[in-house]
Amino acid sequence: MTNLQRQILHGTASLGKPKLESARARLSDLNPYVHIETYETALTSENALELFRDYDVIVDGTDNFPTRYLVNDASVFLDKPNVYGSIFRFEGQASVFWAAEGPCYRCLYPEPPPPGLVPSCAEGGVLGILPGIIGVIQATETVKLILGAGTSLVGRLLLFDALRMSFRELKLKKNPDCPVCGPNRTIHELIDYQQFCGITPHVAEPGEAEFEIAPADLKSRLDRGDRLVIVDVREPHEYEINHIRGSRLIPLGQVPERMHELSSADEIILHCKAGLRSAKALAILRQAGFSRLKNLTGGIDRWAQEIDPTLPRY
User: Fold this and answer.
1) pLDDT, tens digit (0-9, with 9 covering 90-100), for 181-204
2) Domains of the chain by range and CATH?
3) Fewest CB atoms within 10 A around its CB: which of 46, 156, 177, 314?
């Protein structure tokens, strides 16, 4: 493929036609061998496969969860590397998700966080130069993939903290139970990603709050010596990244067949990364007759922010 192979950059349609034309002209002036092709349309489940098909590298510069999952799934189905970047406040992260060589985005984030848990950049703010730093990392990974040079970020998540001016790295493993890239995948076509991410805010059912516990309250009870059973319903590779001391791992998919390992006489605290999967586990256990249950609000991610900052976040 000519022009150092073509790439598609997402998230540019919001610039509008005049700015897109201006950007294209400036890039052409800098390098006449670069060909820029723009698409003035929203990326959807109906057009993603068609738009991606002729390109070799997908660079994800989006800022919302439905599009990230859409980009990931379309990349997996077409066997394309997905150069990922994300920013928030003073932190950023980057990786290359490529199912043929390693994990995909869903291997790291099986499910999106509950709606409203993660504030937007407009609400939470972002350091203005941070997109440039993460963007340059994405561009570097893209060029390496095009040239077939160096060691890519496949299987690694690079974390950047601008306040500390520090980089650290987490190793990522392919999830054998991934519904998109696993050997027994359950998703074979692009889905409704707005619905999957639960864009409509969740309305708590009457009495639901009594089954929730905040990180600070859990910490106080642990310090007090209360007898609690903490059950982590994430996947094994997530548990390896971080976990609450003394917790036991029972992945969500195994809860129905392993609930006999738990006692309904115990008070059980369930948690996952952000609270969504553990809420599902709580519903399963309630239906089976368990009543002394609590779901850790915000999951281990909020625990790491508020209680134990030494835990790595992902």
Assistant:
1) 999 889 899 988 887 776 654 444
2) 7-196 (3.40.50.720), 208-306 (3.40.250.10)
3) 46
